[in-house]
UniProtKB/TrEMBL annotation, chain A:
InterPro entries: 2-oxoacid/accept_OxRdtase_asu, PFOR_II, Pyruvate:ferred/Flavod_OxRd, Pyrv/ketoisovalerate_OxRed_cat, Pyrv_Fd/Flavodoxin_OxRdtase_N, Pyrv_flavodox_OxRed_cen, THDP-binding, Transketo_C/PFOR_II. It comes from Tsuneonella suprasediminis. Keywords: Oxidoreductase. The keyword Nucleotide-binding does not apply. Residues 268-453 form the Pyruvate flavodoxin/ferredoxin oxidoreductase pyrimidine binding domain. PANTHER family: 2-OXOGLUTARATE OXIDOREDUCTASE SUBUNIT KORA, PYRUVATE-FLAVODOXIN OXIDOREDUCTASE-RELATED. This is 2-oxoacid:acceptor oxidoreductase subunit alpha. It comes from the Bacteria. Pfam families: PFOR_II, POR, POR_N. NCBIfam families: OAFO_sf. The keyword Oxidoreductase applies.
From TrEMBL, chain B:
GO terms for biological process: cellular respiration; small molecule metabolic process. This is 2-oxoacid:ferredoxin oxidoreductase subunit beta. PANTHER family: 2-OXOGLUTARATE OXIDOREDUCTASE SUBUNIT KORB, 2-OXOGLUTARATE OXIDOREDUCTASE SUBUNIT KORB-RELATED. The lineage of its organism: Bacteria, Pseudomonadati, Pseudomonadota, Alphaproteobacteria, Sphingomonadales. It comes from Tsuneonella suprasediminis. Residues 55-201 form the Thiamine pyrophosphate enzyme TPP-binding domain. InterPro entries: 2-oxoacid:Fd_oxidoreductase (IPR051457), THDP-binding (IPR029061), TPP_enzyme_TPP-bd (IPR011766). GO terms for molecular function: oxidoreductase activity, acting on the aldehyde or oxo group of donors, iron-sulfur protein as acceptor; thiamine pyrophosphate binding. Keywords: Oxidoreductase. Gene3D superfamilies: 3.40.50.970. The keyword Lyase does not apply.
């Protein structure tokens, strides 16, 4: 079938040489959309564009085919200027079936381009998507550009020589579509062909079929049939800092950062984990990095995961555990023990929609209270939040540093968006990070009244940290535990003055952690409005502030990495602004902490739909605040 | 246990300067002494020995041992111990738990540490009550136990620790009681076993469940009520006048009388510590019709968890290098040259 509106495709992407384009691939969860998106991302990165992605997949593992809740989507925003978000509204929507169209249409820009596979718009699939009539054939899509043809049939035709069954042949559809997309955006097919050969090294037939589909999709774009109206779009490479780049997801960045952190601490790493969405990816990555001194342990539950990590820290390794909201809740009692026994530990929390099971595959920032306050007793703990996939690398190193230097559990906050999203990352030189080697006590550290050497397991150093004493060290036997301890000997103490002292010491130690001063992400250090964010809202806030500033508005962007303790200058900084706006994907948790700590009139801007902020939403809020 | 160079110590070397805070007359004292007596005999090194516990009366144990000790949180000691053992397999790990700690709140962890076969000695002090929280019934309390939370008597079916352990996959199951002179022998056998060694120790909580084990632990008539098992020896009790035989029709154990020394013709079984089927019957033997089976019920080592972790590690790292710079640059990369531009 020929195109219905391909001649207007050009209009859909505005110009043949746009600054940025947003494409969303949507299909059934079985259609391989995440893979398609991932490979398109790679080719985009190789073409030198800046980019940000947003994978959006269903919570169900194998949702029934063709249903609305089985739709999986992958959005990518790429361009020749700095890209901070996955983009508000797509310019191009690839819809592999009616359900994908229905679920994603609302997001498409008016005038945007829809590429649809007519082969899947059958009566049965239309019913499953609750369409009374075929939207490709009535006028309901009139405000968009529509490019509808039988991708399924084309794919089957393309892979015919390889003798695949119909089902296997149709599985190559995503590669066909990717081929078309590569043609549209003037991309090199070579890396993908190589990748397919590698991926299916054990089944060369499948590799060849997929490559044939890819090539056929690409050729389809070029053929006389279509090439007249369907214009190629070229997005120039972004001007960026020179260096070597790769794409990285947050989960990868956290894993690599933890490995780097353990090496900078000169420690083997013990990772205790338990499967949970979206944190499992960290366990998966680390399980393959044993040659870096990493032991991974899949425990029987979240509690055992953290307890085993604390046990390993006690025995002299860098204990790490990771989870998401509900799993972190289970770990809470053990975090308290880590704080009480003052052992290093890194806890990664990939936040997701809550409370309870909430929205496992959607993103939210609603564990900030849990991170900062969520324990019994006065149990202060440092909290760091990563702003992007690439930033998660440095944040993980920072978490390791604080844990080891201050003998304390540290929580690193990421979220579902950061964990799954990919962005280009300038590969750092590991030697550029200062080392923070762990020191273990090897001999008694005090002298008793009679002048004999004495061990004081809770005698603190200048930072307020107690010594790390590995079991197995000759003559330093001692006992620790969750009961309040004497401030020097560590023996059980119920003495009221001692508990007061220990509570104060624990608090002072955390408050005294050296964190870098707060910088300004964009704009001046004082003025009418500061937009203060933390975590994965960085991208949309940054873009919104940039756009507002272009319009002449007096607004700055401040993005806080160190949630607890906060940078010492943050309070003064905020007081230099007439207004403070705090956008966050929760009901206003950081806003409350800022108010509490600095008595500033921080105003919340909240969103808990499971979707990241759109730039436009934030821009509107900035304009309103300054109106 | 681990292979280790024996170290010369005396009982005194294993005592701490901490005041022991159990109730006077508590069975825990006797167990503490039995452990402190055992360790010098096996040549244990205090600086490589660790005691890890959960929460409860028994879990105060580490504070009284001059070793490394970790008093953790309720029920989770097996998880801490697993992490510590994986981090440093040279540590000789002793785990101390109770019936509430190990079978109620921590049942899950106990199951998994046994199934994984992490190399350590696990002492479960079974006093059939919650002592530290002042006397509530526990998962091992007998039906009808009156306690503050069961004023009309409990009606749950009690858990059987040794049967639980064996069912979870334990490769060593031993049993003793606090004041028994044989307890150090059970500890020694457990320590000699490579892998998770589970020891159920009946312990008298004289405040909340006084003398609940007297029916078999009391010295008077003990011969008739205790079956001390020894590998390769016939299962005899009551001064050799009775024995345990197999009822082949019922596929169950039965008590038989022994005439003179002729236990063979009475069909008395010879204890084989590696026989898992018989072990299953021994841990299920109802006390009353049968004596209490004590000593080493089962001992048949299997590969340990930490050995598996080490072997997997060796296989996985073979031919790979620990090169962080290479790792960071893994996958498809591209290079941007030219001058940097401020994107703002
Ligand atoms: S309450 Fe019972 S178990 Fe606890 S110390 Fe006292 S006697 Fe021993």
């Amino acid at each position: 079938m020929a195109t219905q509106a391909a001649d207007q495709c050009e209009a859909a992407v505005k110009s043949e040489n746009p600054e940025a384009v947003v494409v969303r691939f949507a299909g059934d969860s079985g259609d391989g959309m995440q893979l398609t998106g991932g490979q398109f991302t790679l080719s985009t990165a190789l073409a030198g564009n800046d980019l940000a992605t947003f994978p959006d997949f269903p919570a169900e593992i194998r949702a029934p085919q063709g249903t609305l809740f089985g739709v999986s989507a992958f959005q990518i925003n790429f361009g020749s200027t700095a890209i901070e978000t996955a983009g508000d509204a797509p310019d191009v929507l690839v819809a592999m079936n009616p359900a994908a169209l229905k679920v994603n249409l609302a997001a498409l820009k008016p005038g945007g381009l829809i590429i649809a596979d007519t082969g899947e718009f059958t009566k049965r699939n239309l019913d499953k998507a609750h369409y009374d009539a075929n939207p490709l054939e009535d006028d309901s899509l009139a405000q968009y550009q529509l490019l509808a043809f039988d991708i399924s049939a084309h794919t089957v035709e393309a892979v015919k020589p390889f003798g695949l069954g119909n089902k296997d042949a149709l599985r190559c559809k995503n590669m066909w579509t990717l081929g078309l997309a590569l043609w549209m955006f003037d991309r090199d097919r070579k890396p993908l062909q190589e990748w397919l050969k590698q991926k299916f090294a054990k089944a060369p037939d499948i590799a060849d079929a997929n490559i044939a589909a890819l090539d056929a999709g690409h050729a389809y774009g070029e053929t006389a049939e279509l090439s007249g109206p369907l214009k190629q779009v070229h997005v120039d490479p972004v001007a960026t800092e020179p260096g070597m780049y790769r794409t990285i997801t947050g989960a990868e960045a956290v894993s690599l950062g933890l490995v780097a952190g353990a090496q900078l601490a000169e420690l083997p790493m013990f990772f205790g984990g338990y499967p949970i969405t979206p944190a499992s990816a960290i366990l998966h990555h680390l399980a393959r990095l044993k040659e870096f001194g990493v032991t991974t342990f899949q425990a029987e539950d979240e509690i055992a995961a953290i307890c085993s990590a604390i046990g390993a820290s006690w025995a002299g390794q860098l204990g790490v555990t990771s989870s998401s909201g509900p799993g972190i809740a289970l770990k809470t009692e053990a975090i308290g023990l880590g704080i009480m026994t003052e052992l290093p530990l890194v806890i990664v929390n990939s936040q997701r929609g809550g409370p309870s099971t909430g929205l496992p595959t959607k993103t939210e920032q609603s564990d900030l209270y849990q991170a900062v306050y969520g324990r019994n007793g006065d149990a202060p703990m440092p909290v760091i939040a990563a702003r992007s996939p690439a930033d998660a690398f440095e944040c993980a190193i920072e978490a390791c540093r604080i844990a080891v230097e201050y003998m304390t559990p540290v929580m690193l906050l990421t979220d579902g968006y950061i964990a799954n999203a990919a962005e280009p990352w300038k590969v750092p030189d590991p030697a550029s990070f200062p080392a923070f080697p762990a020191r273990f006590l090897t001999e008694k550290n005090a002298t008793d009244a009679d002048g004999n050497p004495q061990l004081l397991p809770y005698k603190r150093d200048a930072k307020g940290a107690r010594p790390w004493i590995k079991p197995g060290t000759p003559d330093l036997m001692h006992r620790i535990g969750g009961i309040e301890k004497d401030s020097q000997t560590g023996n059980i103490s119920y003495d009221p003055a001692n508990h007061q002292l220990m509570t104060d010491l624990r608090k002072q130690k955390i408050e005294g952690i050296a964190v870098p001063p707060q910088d300004i992400a964009l704009g001046e250090g004082a003025g009418k409005l500061a937009v203060v964010g933390w975590g994965s809202t960085f991208g949309p806030i940054h873009q919104a502030v940039r756009r507002a500033r272009r319009k002449g508005l007096e607004v700055s962007h401040i993005h806080v990495r160190h949630i607890w303790p906060m940078p010492a200058n943050l309070g003064e900084l905020l007081k230099g602004f007439d207004k403070v706006l705090v956008p966050e994907m929760n009901t206003g948790q950081f806003k409350t902490v800022l108010r509490d700590q600095f008595l500033v009139d921080a105003q919340p801007l909240t969103k808990t739909s499971g979707q990241p902020f759109k730039i436009a939403e934030l821009e509107a809020a900035i304009e309103e605040a300054l109106a | 246990m681990n292979d280790m160079t024996p170290v010369q110590t005396t009982l005194k070397d294993w005592e701490t300067d901490q005041e022991v805070r159990w109730c006077p007359g508590c069975g825990d004292y006797a167990i503490l002494k039995a452990v402190q007596r055992t360790l010098p005999q096996i040549g244990a090194d205090p600086s490589k020995t660790v005691f890890i516990s959960g929460i409860g009366c028994s879990s105060r144990f580490p504070y009284y041992m001059e070793t490394y000790g970790f008093h953790t949180i309720h029920g989770r000691a097996p998880a801490f111990a697993t992490g510590a053992k994986l981090a440093n397999p040279e540590l000789d790990v002793w785990l101390v738990t109770g019936d509430g700690d190990g079978l109620s709140i921590g049942g899950n962890h106990l199951m998994h540490v046994l199934r994984r076969n992490v190399n350590m000695q696990i002492m479960l002090f079974n006093n059939e009550i919650y002592g530290l929280t002042k006397g509530q019934f526990s998962p091992t309390s007998r039906e009808g136990t009156r306690s503050p939370s069961t004023p009309y008597g409990s009606f749950d079916h009690p858990a059987k620790p040794a049967a639980f352990a064996l069912g979870a996959g334990a490769r060593f199951v031993g049993r003793g009681f606090d004041v028994s002179k044989h307890l150090p022998d059970v500890f020694k056998a457990a320590h000699a076993h490579q892998g998770a060694a589970f020891i159920e120790i009946f312990q008298n909580c004289i405040v909340y469940n006084k003398d609940v084990f007297n029916d078999f632990a009391a010295p008077k008539g003990a011969e008739d009520r205790q079956l001390w098992l020894a590998d390769g020896e016939p299962m005899l009790f009551a001064k050799g006048t009775k024995g345990i035989a197999l009822d082949r029709d019922a596929l169950a154990l039965k008590v038989v009388d022994v005439e003179g020394d002729d236990w063979q013709s009475a069909g008395v079984l010879v204890h084989d510590v590696t026989n898992r089927s018989v072990a299953h019957m021994l841990v299920e033997l109802p006390f009353g019709p049968f004596p209490m089976a004590l000593g080493v019920l089962y001992d048949d080592p299997a590969p340990t968890f930490e050995a598996g972790v080490a072997a997997e590690h060796d296989r996985a790292v073979e031919g790979k290098e620990n090169n962080l710079a290479k790792l960071l640059a893994k996958g498809q990369t591209w290079t941007v040259s030219g001058t940097a531009q401020d994107p703002v």
